[in-house]
Design goal:
13 helices, about 375 residues, about 15% strand, seven-stranded parallel β-sheet, six-stranded parallel β-sheet, Rossmann fold
Length: about 375
């Protein structure tokens, strides 16, 4: 079976890009022909090529709405599909999801869409939320099914006209395990916390920074990994709040696994999510996870058992839970151990790969040739 993966951006490397890289490589390792198409080159392209997964750029495919450029991108998607002749197209992220489904449907090629969080979620500003809801409900009529990365997203989709129960399937994100020596010692002191997230509107660095201002009498440090349009703004805010010597902004880094192994806690303070990979990385490393209770985050983080869930944009709640983690090495260790156990039971890569491939084969149907 030949499977084409289509995603809007290849220069970002967030959850959607990580998912495409891992599933495409998993298909390749299992003997399938997997090819990745993206609107531009970058980190995703580099990593695919290193793994032996073919990667190509689709001209004019971009995140911004532009009718002329979008029509040009649609033409180029069709051009690539004629050239590659896949048995299945699987689309990722909103723009690629819509254009990919239009192109595949017009050519009679089976097509699935994986939603990595909905762009019409309640936390998204009203105008883009309405636009994306229109696109997604239209796109749902064109494809052979939708995969959501958490049950919360599946239930959210079913509340809107255009999505049908039998069309929407949940497959939780998951990831490969790490070596034992890369597991963290959550009880070490003083604690160092790590947040891996783009500095973009989706994430909520300001709430975390304001929460930290009430903890400066304690001994701790927070590392931020990730770049994005608000990077300089967040660095400036940390300085204004008197946190310049207590937090470090590292920008994009490739050694996240090693950084996790040296941390004592993982943070994801955010405005909206689907089912974030980053919290699974924290659990996999054996770290307690403090995260905003949005999207499908609670489907991995059990409040008070594997970490803490805090209300959206609640500075005081973040501060109170962080204080508990800073002051109690034993609490950090017990929460981290429980998170690691849950990761092993529910979120291994083979489990996700088996479920995903079953849906791919079902969608491709009689066209599958292995």
């Amino acid at each position: 079976m030949r499977i084409v993966f289509l995603i809007t951006r290849g220069d970002d490397f967030a959850g959607a890009q990580l998912h495409v890289r891992d599933i495409a490589n998993g298909c390749r390792e299992r003997g399938y022909d997997a090819i990745v198409l993206a609107g531009n080159d970058g980190e995703l392209g580099d990593q695919c090529r290193q793994l032996g997964v073919p990667f190509y750029v689709v001209k004019h495919l971009q995140r911004a709405l532009d009718p002329i450029e979008d029509l040009r991108a649609l033409r180029h998607v069709r051009k690539w599909l004629r050239r590659l002749r896949p048995d299945l197209v699987t689309c990722h992220t909103a723009k690629a999801g819509l254009l990919g489904r239009v192109a595949a449907r017009s050519m009679g090629i089976p097509v699935l869409y994986t939603a990595h969080g909905w762009q019409f979620a309640e936390e998204v500003p009203p105008f883009p939320r309405r636009m994306y809801r229109l696109f997604e409900t239209f796109g749902a009529q064109l494809g052979d099914g939708v995969i959501t990365v958490c049950e919360q997203d599946r239930q959210f989709a079913l509340r809107y006209r255009g999505f049908r129960d039998h069309q929407v399937h949940t497959v939780h994100n998951a990831m490969s395990d790490i070596e034992n020596e890369l597991r963290a010692d959550a009880s070490s002191a003083p604690p160092r916390f790590l947040m891996v997230a783009r500095t973009a509107p989706q994430k909520d660095h300001p709430t975390l920074l304001h929460a930290l201002t009430g903890l400066t009498e304690l001994d701790w440090h927070v590392d931020f990994v990730g770049d994005g349009p608000a990077f300089d703004e967040h660095v400036a805010l940390a300085s204004e709040l008197g946190l310049a010597d207590r937090v470090t902004f590292h920008g994009f880094q490739r050694d996240v696994i090693e950084r996790l192994s040296r941390a004592q806690g993982f943070l994801l303070v955010t405005n909206w999510e689907g089912f974030p990979y980053s919290t699974l990385e924290g659990m996999r490393a054996g770290l307690p996870v403090l995260a905003s209770d949005v999207g499908g985050v609670s489907e991995a983080i059990i409040d008070g058992e594997t970490g803490f869930l805090v209300p959206h944009q609640d500075v005081q709640a973040v501060r109170d839970r962080l204080r508990q983690l800073i002051e109690s090495p034993d609490l950090r260790a017990s929460l981290g151990k429980a998170g690691r156990t849950l990761f092993e039971r529910e979120f291994t890569f083979d489990r996700m790969m088996d479920k995903t491939l079953a849906l791919y084969k079902q969608a491709a149907g009689s066209l599958v040739s292995e």
